[in-house]
Amino acid sequence: MRFTKKEDSNIEVNLTPLIDVVFLLLIFFMVSTTFIYSNSIDVNLPAAKGDETSVSENIRVVLTQAGVINIDGQPYKESEVEGHLEKMKEKSPESTVIIEADKNVTHGRVVFIMDASRKAGFANFAIAVEEE
């Protein structure tokens, strides 16, 4: 008895499962990627050494834990802050607004001052911090 071996001359690799897996990975990464861009405000932090900006050109805004807003030593209500900053912008247009906030002040109040200074026309503002 003689057995003959059949030779398959057409050996093919099925790529359909590979394409399905790559397609599923592509869909997964497309769905899981977020394209949300939030509005942000650029903050220029004060330099520790070598800053040649004089103190007279800066506007100090102090936020206390009690909720008081002081601009150059004078207390103001939230409704008055933007108007006062606009008046100060007319007097010294190149000033830098320095925000000094108590560590227990909420983030929203600091952002309110940043937004008010931006609406008043100030391009430069900084957040003052203490060294540890």
Descriptive notes:
It is a single chain. The chain has 132 residues and is of the alpha/beta class. 34% of the residues lie in helices and 16% in strands. It is built from 3 helices and 5 strands. The chain has helices at 16-32, 78-91, 107-120, and strands at 58-63, 69-71, 74-76, 96-101, 125-127. Strands 3-2-1-4-5 form a 5-stranded mixed sheet.
Quick overview:
With 132 residues, the protein is an alpha/beta fold. The chain is 34% helix and 16% strand.
Whole-angstrom Rg: 31 Å
The pLDDT mean sits at 80
Element-by-element helix/strand order: HEEEHEHE
- Estimate the strand proportion: 15-25%
Number of helices: 3
SS-based structural class? alpha/beta
Shape, per Cα inertia axes: rod-shaped
**Amino- and carboxy-terminal Cα gap:** 94 Å
Helical proportion, percent range: 25-40%
Q: Could you give the count of β-strands?
A: 5
- Low-confidence sequence ranges: 40-46
Strand arrangement within the widest β-sheet reads 3-2-1-4-5
Largest sheet: 5 strands, mixed
Features:
132 residues; alpha/beta; five-stranded mixed β-sheet; 5 strands; 34% helix; rod-shaped
Secondary structure topology:
Elements: H1 16-32, E1 58-63, E2 69-71, E3 74-76, H2 78-91, E4 96-101, H3 107-120, E5 125-127
Parallel strand pairs: 1-4, 4-5
Antiparallel strand pairs: 1-2, 2-3
Helix pairs in contact: 2-3
